[in-house]
Write a structure and sequence with these properties.
alpha/beta
Length: 115
């Protein structure tokens, strides 16, 4: 049904584990209370998490940085397959070091050309 109703994402959401998370609901902590460095990795055209909503979350997190992958539609981006993205995410995982600046933009992979 979703594949016909939403042709951009097709039936992708059927395999999205987030939709079927069975854990009980919890009260979320205040975002402002989070002081650890946070790295957000966002695709520019993510239909599941639009970039506008991700920017609102970023603005609520004082110690966060967002890497935006331009011209990308995927929801899950790591590993992405481009050193310019993967190396910065790996560095964050290994050392906690955030990329320079609050938001950085990274070129996405070229879309396949139809033949």
């Amino acid at each position: 049904v979703d594949a016909a109703r939403y042709p951009l994402t097709g039936g992708h959401d059927v395999s999205n584990r987030c939709l079927y998370w069975g854990a009980p609901a919890r009260i979320r902590p205040s975002l402002a209370a989070m002081t650890a460095p946070i790295l957000m990795l966002q695709s520019y055209y993510d239909a599941v998490t639009p970039v506008e909503g991700a920017m609102e979350t970023l603005n609520a997190l004082p110690n966060a940085h967002m890497m935006v992958v331009e011209n990308e539609y995927k929801h899950g981006l790591f590993p992405y397959g481009k050193a310019s993205v993967d190396a910065k995410v790996a560095e964050y995982f290994l050392t906690g070091t955030l990329p320079f600046g609050r938001v950085s933009y990274h070129a996405g992979k070229p879309l396949p050309m139809p033949y």
